[in-house]
Recover the amino acids of this structure.
């Protein structure tokens, strides 16, 4: 039986192979990295959209409970809103700093809070709701006593999303 | 047994990497497609929210003015509207960003400009069309009071064109109210009393009286109804009783501290409502009897003085019609005075903007009627001044009301069109401005001739 003799790789072969492996590896790594980043971006953008939709829905739900806008008065733009509901309870929507989010995002970030005062006048924690965690800016403009325009910017790691909504209040109460 | 583990050959490694790279490339294609979908979803959300804004604007506009599509400038227009730079009326009063604060100047602020990022970039691409149509274009059918609105948003996307359509149905009354004045009076009971109480012939029917006097039945009924309804109204002392109620309310108002805003408001409102009820009742009588006078006129005045013709009693009946008309006009002015007093700044600050708008709407109705009263020559000028005050109050603050006041002020320059736009007002105009002066003239001439005969 003839014993076969295995020849070792030459230096050139090893160098070429190592070079190719490195090249392919780098390309592959870049592709994987891009894929990861893209996925993360997509996910963050989707989150931002979801947050914005949630913000919009929460605002609509809250404001539609009201029957009369107390502030802003018509023609006025304010960063907060006060309205009265059908049983004369007052609700205030306002922004308070969200320091944790501000530190993480390295910019000013607020929470949108809703507080409904009841007849006792005393603070009731149950009446306080956080409507939104990460708001960059929010303005209420009243163009009639029965509806309000909301200009809100929601923020997360991947950017801002601004929307402009016009919300009508419950058509109850008044003179009759 | 010795197992010899062979390393991967270069070809195998390359194939492996190639497969992974292909998968990654496929994923990238998928991710790019997802990104487009995500962008479309973001645009769609914007279109939904913007469309809702346009819907709310239309609702607000039509709640103040049934011709709101005209005042918004979208009726009969098929051109594309834009969201940015205040190029459409719907997006020209967004925020009050510049002094003087509390008033949005559409020339200097209010629009979505480049300063409003990232909103500007995300809505720049949107165009939209707005259309509105009544379910019945003409006539007096109830469907004419319903409007179907349509809002179509569209925008260019990486894959084509996005579109979001909304349709809405809004109640916006423009036809006249269907009021049967016959229902407010028990006509059969009145008619049964006519032979005895008006003609002194309780045992006879109207037909028998007609046969014996030569007057036709229609004329006798008209005369009898005028006589009994005006007498009943006088005898009921309705006006006196209601005036006494008002006296009591005014007394209470006088004793209420001006700081008790709730009581001040409620008492003034009660007085205004009482005056309004009185005006309404008096108008109903005036309007109900108006065709009866027409019958008397068209049939020729009553010729037999004894029994069926004019006498001192019927003179009183006729004269009382004028008194009822004067009660109506006077009550209307008092109603306007007391509703106007509710617009006092302290009271409105207490009651809020919604009540203010409702009061303005009520006052507009009253000013309109007073403007057509033949006995109130200053009525039209008073209405013009009121509209001018509304324009000043609402400019830059309440665009829907501002546009309404501007539109209405323009209509007043063409009274025929103004009346044609508001059929209820046209009906009132027919009775108050066209027929009442004729009736009062008829009463005057008829009674003068009777007095002369006697």
């Amino acid at each position: 039986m003839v014993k076969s003799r295995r020849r070792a790789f030459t230096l050139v072969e090893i160098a070429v192979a190592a070079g190719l492996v490195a090249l392919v590896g780098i390309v592959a790594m870049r592709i994987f990295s891009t894929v990861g980043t893209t996925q993360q971006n997509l996910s963050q953008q989707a989150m931002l959209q979801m947050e914005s939709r949630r913000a919009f829905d929460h605002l609509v739900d809250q404001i539609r409970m009201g029957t009369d806008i107390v502030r802003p008065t018509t023609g006025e733009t304010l960063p907060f809103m006060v309205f009265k509901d059908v049983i004369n309870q007052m609700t205030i929507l306002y922004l308070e700093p969200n320091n944790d989010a501000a530190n993480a995002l390295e910019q000013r970030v607020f929470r949108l809070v809703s507080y409904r005062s009841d007849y006792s006048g005393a603070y009731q924690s149950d009446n306080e709701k956080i409507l939104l965690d990460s708001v960059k800016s929010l303005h209420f403009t009243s163009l009639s006593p029965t509806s309000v325009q909301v200009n809100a910017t929601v923020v997360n790691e991947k950017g801002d999303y601004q929307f402009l909504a016009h919300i009508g209040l419950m058509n109850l109460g008044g003179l009759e | 047994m010795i197992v010899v583990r062979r390393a991967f050959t270069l070809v195998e490694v390359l194939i492996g990497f190639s497969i992974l790279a292909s998968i990654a490339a496929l994923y990238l294609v998928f991710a790019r497609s997802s990104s487009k979908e995500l962008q479309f979803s973001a645009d769609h959300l914007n279109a939904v929210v913007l469309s809702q804004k346009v819907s709310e604007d239309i609702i607000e506009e039509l709640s103040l003015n049934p011709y709101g599509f005209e005042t918004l400038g979208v009726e009969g227009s098929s051109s594309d509207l834009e969201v940015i730079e205040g190029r459409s009326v719907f997006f020209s009063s967004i925020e009050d960003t510049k002094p003087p604060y509390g008033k949005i100047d559409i020339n200097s602020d209010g629009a979505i400009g480049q300063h409003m990022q990232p909103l500007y970039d995300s809505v720049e691409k949107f165009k939209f069309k707005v259309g509105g149509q009544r379910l019945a274009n003409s006539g007096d059918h109830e469907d004419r009071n319903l409007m179907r609105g349509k809002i179509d948003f569209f925008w260019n996307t990486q894959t084509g064109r996005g579109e979001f359509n909304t349709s809405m149905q809004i109640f916006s009354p423009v036809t006249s109210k269907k009021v049967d004045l016959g229902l407010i009076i028990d006509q059969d009971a009145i008619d049964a009393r006519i032979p005895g109480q008006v003609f002194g012939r309780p045992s006879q029917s109207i037909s028998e009286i007609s046969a014996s006097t030569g007057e036709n039945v229609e004329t006798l009924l008209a005369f009898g109804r005028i006589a009994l309804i005006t007498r009943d109204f006088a005898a009921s002392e309705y006006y006196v009783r209601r005036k006494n109620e008002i006296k009591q309310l005014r007394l209470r108002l006088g004793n209420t501290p001006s700081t008790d805003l709730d009581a001040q408001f409620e008492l003034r409102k009660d007085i205004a409502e009482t005056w309004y009820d009185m005006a309404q009742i008096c108008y109903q009588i005036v309007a109900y009897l108006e065709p009866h006078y027409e019958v008397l006129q068209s049939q020729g005045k009553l010729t037999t003085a004894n029994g069926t013709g004019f006498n001192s009693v019927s003179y009183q009946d006729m004269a009382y019609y004028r008194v009822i008309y004067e009660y109506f006009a006077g009550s209307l002015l008092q109603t306007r005075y007391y509703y106007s007093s509710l617009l006092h700044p302290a009271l409105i600050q207490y009651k809020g903007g919604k009540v203010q708008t409702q009061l303005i709407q009520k006052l507009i109705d009253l000013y309109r009627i007073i403007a057509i009263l033949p006995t109130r020559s200053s009525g039209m000028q008073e209405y013009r001044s009121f509209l001018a005050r509304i324009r000043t109050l609402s400019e830059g603050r309440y665009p829907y009301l501002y546009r309404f006041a501007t539109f209405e002020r323009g209509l007043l320059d063409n009274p025929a069109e103004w009346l044609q736009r508001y059929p209820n007002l046209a009906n009132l105009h027919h009775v108050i401005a066209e027929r009442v002066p004729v009736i009062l003239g008829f009463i005057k001439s008829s009674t003068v001739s009777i007095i002369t005969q006697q």
Summary: Chain B touches chain A through 60 residues (CB under 8 Å). Chain B has a mean pLDDT of 86. The first strand of chain B starts at residue 81 and ends at 82.
